[in-house]
Design a protein that fits this description.
Elements (H helix, E strand, L loop, with lengths): L5 H21 L1 E4 L8 E11 L10 E3 H13 L5 E11 L1 H12 L5 E9 L3 H6 L3 E4 L4 E4 L12 H20 L5 H8 L11 E4 L1 H5 L5 E2 L2 H13 L3
Parallel strand pairs: 2-3, 2-4, 4-5, 5-6, 6-9
Antiparallel strand pairs: 1-2, 7-8
Helix pairs in contact: 2-3
Length: 234
């Protein structure tokens, strides 16, 4: 085999360095060295979903102003054939999370999601925004009412606003999974599981049995499913 010239080696090294920087900064990488010849983009949603306000520099965060343009770029890229979304998130900004979820749900390419450590709060709509979803056996999903940090004035208008936000979340999740709206609402307002709070925690197969997630599995099953969906033309 012929030896690469210095310019080719330099170009290859620059590409690899850019990929490493992209993975470190945004938790994203493109998988295009597969023997199956499919170009798949990998998106990690980890830590807290950051909205309009910047989180502490010590916090792991997924910045929606980074993710949204990337998703638009993926949709416009004819070479990218599928998207794999890895989730390990504690939740975060509701509007930012729903914006990302809506964007993922509207992609024309096949999308598979995989819940790893957990996908809590606004992570629930993010997990179900894909065409097919997986959760590892020890993965968790926490469903609870919308909270607001800081001082909240207890007025009827405030209550109605929270109800409107919760309805947006419940409607999206019910529309993109197998769980009924009212069943999801009951899980959200459950008073028996969390002694000091409302809500429900589902672990692994419980999330599948509830109708939130499609299947228990890991990265092997998730990638296999995504390649199958690409082969089948979605």
């Amino acid at each position: 085999m012929g030896k690469q010239n210095p310019q080719e080696e330099k170009t290859k090294k620059e590409i690899e360095e850019k990929e490493d920087e992209k993975l470190e900064e945004y938790g994203q990488i493109t998988l295009d060295h597969s023997g199956k010849r499919h170009k798949i983009h990998l998106l990690s949603i980890i830590g807290e979903v950051e909205g309009h306000e910047n989180l502490s520099g010590n916090s792991k965060a997924t910045k929606y102003d980074h993710v949204l343009p990337k998703l638009a770029e993926i949709e416009d890229d004819e070479e990218v054939e599928g998207l794999m979304v890895l989730l390990n998130t504690s939740g975060g900004d509701v509007d930012a999370g729903l914006a990302i979820a809506e964007m993922i749900a509207s992609l024309s390419i096949p999308v598979v999601s995989l819940v790893l450590g957990g996908s809590h709060s606004i992570g629930v709509p993010l997990a179900v925004s894909s065409d097919y979803s997986f959760i590892v056996p020890t993965g968790t999903m926490m469903i609870h009412p919308v909270r607001m940090s800081g001082m909240v004035i207890g007025t009827a208008q405030t209550y109605e606003y929270f109800e409107m936000i919760q309805d947006r979340i419940l409607s999206f999740v019910a529309a993109h999974s197998k769980i009924e709206y009212e069943n999801l609402r009951q899980l959200m307002h459950n008073t028996k599981m969390l002694t000091r709070d409302l809500g429900t925690v589902l672990v692994g197969k419980e999330a599948v049995e509830a109708g939130l997630i499609d299947e228990v599995g890991g990265i092997r099953e998730a990638l296999k499913k995504l390649h199958t969906m690409i082969d089948a033309g979605h």
